[in-house]
């Protein structure tokens, strides 16, 4: 007997993973959507943070589900075990680390992105053109040339890594992609300030260049990279036969939002023929505020620039960006010749593909939420919110300076305020402990979430303002909580110091 195309005898009943009852799925979605909107509109009414209870952790560690629980039960688990115990970065008094606060519009864009389920590795589809547009907008924001390339990534850590890979490829005296770092005749050296973000060192490690080959240059009293030390260190390294290749400037350090003298770094890199990368994770977007923008002079001369949309543009996590001035150099660091990825006709058109500009092949539709946020609010309003945060930081610093038991620990350059609680007469040796415990006490009170860091070896309470929901009253409420909780924390620290029970 002849077999024919269309013989289906061997196929079992074919059910997809789609709902069997779309109407029922729709009504579930409608009620879940109202729960989500209440969650968003109630951001201000909740506590800023509270600990995840042990029974919730146990519920979340459930056994591997082998049989369907259905979407209703999954949603119930979210509402019961996840929604009430989030970090609180959507709250107006969340000031910890550098977190974005998100927007309701961002949620809507995320829902569309999930429905479209696009893979932005490449090929011919509208989502690719949305990412192209977002990158083109970024080029305009930072006055990069038309020949610049860009790539959306999970965040600035990844963007720093990809940027250093491009710099390494361009400056290596050998074909580094073919031969690997073991074939380098001498170590390649990068330079950044002692205040630079840890992701820069991680990038050096991951690229096989070695953390010891990242020079961490001392900073001046404004916590900016010291240019004389930088110049001297490069000279010494060259004299030792090493191969300087890259300077990483910070446009907003994570500790204190210090901005290196980017124009001076651009000059120096030009003279020394070094790659000039800027880590502008949050600070680069101060470009959108007319008042703050002059502090970033020189950023437009970077060879590459990394920054985040999920911090100061409030795009939902995660979304970062890398711009590379010379798009061809960018591509040379990641292009491939795989047959199954050949760019071609019809659905295979759309060159150049994004997978030729970074390590990832499959990539989500991050661009949609960025595109949506910029369209929804417009650049001017987003910039005004950035300016507001900087004004709030200066206001908070004034309040701190007028309080006899608070001490400002770093100059306020943008949106971060570092200070400590220092009640008169309190032993200096115990101030670090006092402030670590005070930060924990404020967080645990649910009033606000600052974080801590060290500035010039002293523990600081750190307030980062990348929050479009924060108002002046929130800052005052936070300060009042610090001053209210301070004395009892101080008593406890002193008591435990003298050996008495806490
Ligand atoms: C947050 C931050 C990073 C890392 O960015 P992610 O988006 O968290 O990966 C790098 N540098 C600076 C200055 C940052 O503030």
From TrEMBL:
A GO term, aspect molecular function:
pyridoxal phosphate binding
| GO annotation (BP), single | amino acid metabolic process
Residues bearing PTM N6-(pyridoxal phosphate)lysine: 311
Q: Which SUPFAM superfamilies match?
A: PLP-dependent transferases
Q: Which UniProt keywords apply?
A: Aminotransferase, Decarboxylase, Lyase, Pyridoxal phosphate, Transferase
Q: Which residues form a coiled coil?
A: none
Record's superkingdom?
Bacteria
List the Pfam families.
Pyridoxal_deC (PF00282)
Q: What InterPro entries does the annotation carry?
A: Aromatic_deC (IPR010977), PyrdxlP-dep_de-COase (IPR002129), PyrdxlP-dep_Trfase (IPR015424), PyrdxlP-dep_Trfase_major (IPR015421), PyrdxlP-dep_Trfase_small (IPR015422), Pyridoxal-P_BS (IPR021115)
Essential cofactor(s): pyridoxal 5'-phosphate
Family the UniProt entry places it in: Belongs to the group II decarboxylase family.
The protein's matches in PANTHER family, at most eight in alphabetical order, are given as: GROUP II PYRIDOXAL-5-PHOSPHATE DECARBOXYLASE, MIP05841P
What is this protein's name? Aminotransferase class V-fold PLP-dependent enzyme
């Amino acid at each position: 007997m002849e077999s024919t195309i269309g013989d289906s005898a061997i196929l079992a009943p074919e059910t997809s993973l789609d709902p069997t009852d779309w109407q029922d799925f729709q009504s579930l979605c409608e009620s879940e959507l109202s729960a989500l909107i209440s969650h968003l509109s109630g951001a201000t009414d909740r506590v800023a943070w509270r600990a995840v209870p042990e029974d919730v952790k146990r519920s979340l560690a459930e056994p591997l589900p082998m049989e369907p629980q259905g979407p209703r039960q999954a949603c119930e688990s979210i509402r019961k075990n996840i929604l009430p115990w989030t970090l609180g970065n959507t709250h107006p008094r969340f000031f910890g680390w550098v977190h974005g606060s998100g927007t309701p519009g961002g949620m809507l864009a995320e829902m569309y992105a999930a429905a479209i389920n696009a893979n932005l590795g490449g090929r011919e589809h509208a989502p690719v053109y949305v990412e192209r547009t977002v990158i083109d907008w970024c080029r305009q924001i930072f006055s990069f040339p038309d020949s610049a390339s860009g790539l959306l990534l999970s965040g600035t850590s990844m963007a720093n890594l990809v940027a250093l890979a491009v710099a390494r490829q361009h400056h290596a005296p050998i074909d580094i992609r073919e031969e690997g770092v073991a074939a380098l005749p001498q170590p390649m050296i990068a330079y950044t300030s002692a205040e630079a973000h840890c992701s820069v060192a991680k990038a050096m490690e991951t690229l096989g260049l070695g953390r010891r080959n990242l020079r961490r240059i001392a900073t001046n009293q404004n916590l900016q990279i010291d240019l004389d030390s930088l110049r001297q260190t490069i000279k010494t390294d060259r004299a030792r036969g090493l191969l300087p290749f890259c300077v990483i400037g910070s446009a907003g350090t994570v500790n204190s939002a210090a901005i290196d003298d980017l124009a001076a770094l651009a000059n120096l890199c030009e003279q020394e023929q070094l790659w000039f990368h800027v880590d502008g994770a949050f600070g680069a977007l101060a470009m959108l505020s007319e008042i703050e923008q002059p502090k970033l002079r020189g950023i437009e001369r970077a060879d590459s620039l990394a920054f985040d949309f999920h911090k100061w543009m409030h795009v939902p996590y995660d979304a970062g960006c890398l711009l590379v001035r010379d798009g061809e150099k960018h591509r040379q660091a990641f292009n491939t010749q795989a047959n199954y990825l050949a760019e071609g006709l019809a659905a295979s058109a759309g060159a150049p593909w994004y997978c030729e500009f970074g390590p990832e092949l499959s990539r989500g539709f991050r661009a949609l939420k960025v595109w949506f946020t910029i369209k929804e609010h417009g650049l001017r309003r987003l910039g005004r919110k950035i300016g507001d945060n900087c004004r709030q930081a200066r206001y908070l610093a004034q309040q701190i300076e007028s309080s006899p038991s608070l001490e400002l620990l770093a100059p306020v350059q943008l949106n971060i305020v570092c200070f400590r609680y220092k009640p008169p007469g309190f032993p200096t040796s115990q101030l670090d402990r006092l402030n670590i415990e005070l930060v924990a006490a404020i967080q645990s009170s649910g009033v606000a979430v600052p974080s801590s860091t060290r500035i010039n070896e002293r523990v600081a309470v750190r307030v980062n303002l990348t929050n479009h929901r924060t108002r002046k009253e929130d800052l005052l409420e936070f300060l009042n909580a610090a001053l209210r909780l301070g004395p009892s924390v101080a008593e406890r620290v002193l008591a435990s110091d003298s050996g008495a029970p806490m």
